[in-house]
Design a protein that fits this description.
The chain has 293 residues and is of the alpha/beta class. It has one domain: Rossmann fold (3-Layer(aba) Sandwich). Helix content is 40%, strand content 16%. It has an eight-stranded mixed β-sheet, sandwiched between helices. Strand 3, helix 1 and strand 4 form a beta-alpha-beta unit.
Length: 293
């Protein structure tokens, strides 16, 4: 697995699919998820459309740089945020969502790619939005998938989904894999299936079990705040994809994103939750193919 320095002191593990002479598509994964959550078959299918597909581990996840020297007490952090003590919260967080966006752009630079189509899922959508806002000249198109704008009133999780995402995961492999089935709460109602969830959990555990990074990523996401004003000014061609079954980030998050970005296209998928069921890959890849022409 190649690893390359993307930002000062930050090296990212990455993988590519397709011909480097084709237009680059950078896939940005979400909260605490490794790049393998972009399934190899999905990446190959997109590459077969004439795209140079790049997936990578965000910092503090997978095989990329870890920030062990900056432990975050999540109890204290959440208390500081909830009581409005943002100065204390910021002091606890070792990096920002903008830093994570700069990592992705730095990876492109290290690979000799000046401009790319950027596709982000969930927190990855927030990172992708931040890339387009901060460096629009480097983003050919933006695709924000199952994500939101940072405004707390949009894209809210259901109580059941919030309980699952907040619950600590077991440290042993068997328990970790079994606990992944709880994610069916936000999966496609039609295509939701425990088997691929367990398979991904097992692969993720064996590849790089690292729960400590999740708190720091969460801090970066929470402290990013609203991107609404910046999205109103964005002039990067934008596609928003959201599943109507999504209970982790309510479809209102996708609708709001599309409403804010001038000229954005909105694709709402009735049988998608906070997931990408294999049965919907043809429709998703068709949309990405058209958007990144």
């Amino acid at each position: 697995m190649p690893i390359i320095e993307a930002s000062p002191g930050v090296s990212l593990a990455y993988e590519t699919f397709g011909d480097p002479s084709d237009p680059a598509v950078l896939l940005v994964m979400g909260f605490s998820a490794q790049m393998i959550a972009w399934h190899e078959d999905f990446c190959r299918a997109l590459a077969a459309r004439g795209r140079y597909v790049i997936r990578y581990d965000n910092r503090d996840c997978g095989l990329s740089t870890r920030f062990d020297e900056h432990p975050v007490d999540m109890g204290r952090f959440i208390h500081a945020v909830s009581t409005g003590d943002l100065a204390s919260a910021v002091a606890m967080a070792p990096y920002t969502l903008r830093d994570m966006a700069d990592d992705g752009l730095g990876l492109l630079t290290a690979l000799g790619i000046e401009r790319a189509h950027v596709v982000g899922s969930s927190m990855g959508g927030m990172i992708a939005q931040t890339m387009a806002i901060s460096r629009p000249e480097r983003v050919l198109t933006l695709t924000s998938m199952m994500s939101s704008t940072g405004e707390p009133e949009y894209g809210r999780p259901s109580a059941e989904a919030q309980a699952v995402v907040s619950a600590p995961k077991p440290a042993d492999r068997e328990g970790y894999v079994a606990a992944s089935e709880a994610e069916l709460v936000w999966a496609s109602k039609r295509y939701g299936n425990a088997a691929p969830l367990r398979e991904l959990a097992a692969r993720s555990y064996d590849r790089a079990y690292y729960p400590a990074g999740a708190g720091r990523q969460l801090g970066a996401m929470i402290l990013a705040g609203s991107r609404a004003d910046a999205l109103r000014e964005l002039r990067v061609p934008t596609l928003v994809i959201h599943g109507l079954d999504d209970t982790l980030i309510d479809p209102g998050g996708g609708r709001r994103t599309a409403d804010l970005v001038p000229g954005a296209k909105l694709l709402l998928l009735p049988d998608m939750g906070h997931d990408r069921p294999r049965e919907l890959w043809p429709e998703i890849i068709d949309a990405l193919d058209t958007h990144t022409e």
